[in-house]
Design brief:
This protein is an all-alpha fold. It is about 80% helix and about 0% strand. A two-stranded antiparallel ribbon has the order 1-2.
Length: about 425
């Protein structure tokens, strides 16, 4: 057997032909997004005795990722922990630690995720492993974005992108571009976000990575949604959802169903939209995605308030409070307080509404994207009893709107945004001509 290097660290000569064949079949199936089939081949590869510990650790890592993509998170964790402990290879240990960080992040355990990413980064730097360094920095960048530290997020992600470009890892580059796009989105820099997401989509398409193409469609659609281009947003989200259903990508469906629901409600298709939001909520709870659960509850609460369903809205806001408390992150505290403030306002409890919205503002200063932040300022300007205070919030909302509109190169997108009724209301109240933006 030729001494062919596989996975960059061990040679084919160290592994029996049957185990090596099963491993390669697993890699091939995974590259075709046939993850259940890949798991079966990886399991076969692990059944052979006498294979090197590093080989076994790597197979556990790859099988764990397949379990992850099929939403079997307990099985993924078992494999990742085996990948961490079976071998004493420092590179492999760091790789497995990053995967465990991704799992902790997904489950909403941000402190644990940060600790795992930081330790993996230290290990990657010690061994000069650019793959580990890039993945760890990507993870830290994602956490920084979620915690509202967008400058730190961009710094980590830019360094991650440089590491992956240095070693020619196209898929990892695209994953970082996705994270950069979401960070730009959070900063209200939608043009830069769209640029990053379209570049990521091009790479994923070239790799025939259809699972991550689904995510790119969802992200591009969210940018159009934030700019009130709901027909385009819905086209992207429906395309992503159709592909997710074809692939059996249950991990991705709740986020896209949530967005389809928001798009439909915004286009006047309330009953259809609410069905999709409920599907998203059920799906998020089923797979244990607490972030998507909270985001979906926020959207359901606002939809029910806008359609005069106060009792249902109140129950949804209470559920959102519990979800935000479980996540223990400022972003979700802000969303919960925002929804609670709007509910109190609709109930005619102005003083309590102001208190809740002020609490939302305190939590939102660094943790909520500008697409939510300007709406929060606009809402406070309506609720505040003091006209001077209301005027300050109108001015801030208008300034966020200006910062959003002016960088947009696409004239259609800019027109959709500045002429959307909620945006026009703020601009008119602030005495700004939308044509001047």
């Amino acid at each position: 057997m030729p001494d062919q290097i596989i996975s960059g660290v061990f040679s084919a000569r160290e592994i029996g032909a049957a185990a090596l064949s099963a491993y390669r079949e697993g890699r091939g199936a995974a590259s075709q997004q046939k993850y259940g089939k890949a798991i079966r081949f990886y399991t076969d590869a692990l059944a052979f005795e006498g294979t090197p510990s590093l080989f076994r650790a790597r197979v556990h890592e790859y099988r764990g990722l397949c379990h992850w993509l099929l939403s079997d998170f307990d099985a993924a964790e078992q494999d990742y922990r085996a990948a961490l402990t079976i071998s004493d290879n420092k590179d492999q240990i760091a790789r497995a630690r990053v995967r465990l960080g991704e799992l902790a992040d997904f489950r909403g355990d941000y402190p644990q995720a940060a600790q795992l990413y930081q330790q993996a980064l230290t290990e990657g730097i010690d061994t000069e492993n650019l793959l580990v360094i890039g993945r760890a920095r990507r993870g830290l960048g994602i956490l920084s974005r979620k915690q509202g530290h967008s400058e730190d997020a961009i710094r980590h992600l830019t360094q991650a992108l440089a590491a992956f470009r240095q070693i020619g890892e196209a898929r990892e580059q695209a994953r970082v571009l996705t994270s950069l796009g979401r960070t730009r989105h959070a900063r209200g820099e939608y043009q830069l976000a769209l640029d990053a997401h379209h570049e990521a989509l091009t790479i994923f398409d070239s790799l025939n990575d259809r699972w991550r193409m689904v995510q790119a469609y969802a992200d591009i659609g969210e940018c159009h949604q934030a700019l009130y281009d709901f027909p385009t947003a819905l086209r992207y989200h429906e395309k992503g959802l159709d592909m997710a259903i074809q692939l059996g990508a249950n991990l991705l469906k709740p986020e896209i169903q949530r967005n389809v629901g928001v798009d439909m409600i915004s286009l006047g298709r309330y009953e259809e939209g609410l069905v999709y939001l409920q599907l998203a909520l059920d799906g998020a709870r089923h797979i244990g995605n607490r972030e998507q659960e909270a985001l979906t509850l926020f959207n359901i609460a606002r939809a029910r308030m806008m359609h005069a369903q106060p009792e249902l809205a109140a129950q949804t806001v209470a559920d959102l409070d519990k979800a935000a408390e479980a996540l223990d992150a400022e972003q979700f505290r802000a969303l919960a307080a925002f929804a609670r403030g709007e509910l109190l306002y609709h109930q005619g409890k102005q003083e309590a509404a102001v208190a809740a919205l002020n609490a939302a503002m305190l939590a939102a200063q660094t943790s909520v994207d500008r697409g939510i932040l300007w709406k929060l300022h606009a809402t406070i300007s309506h609720v505040a009893g003091n006209e001077a205070i209301a005027g300050v919030h109108r001015t801030i909302a208008a300034d966020f709107i200006r910062q959003t509109a002016e960088p947009l190169r696409d004239t259609h997108l800019k027109s959709c945004f500045v002429n959307a009724p909620p945006v026009l209301a703020v601009l008119h109240a602030a005495g700004i001509n939308p044509a001047n933006l």
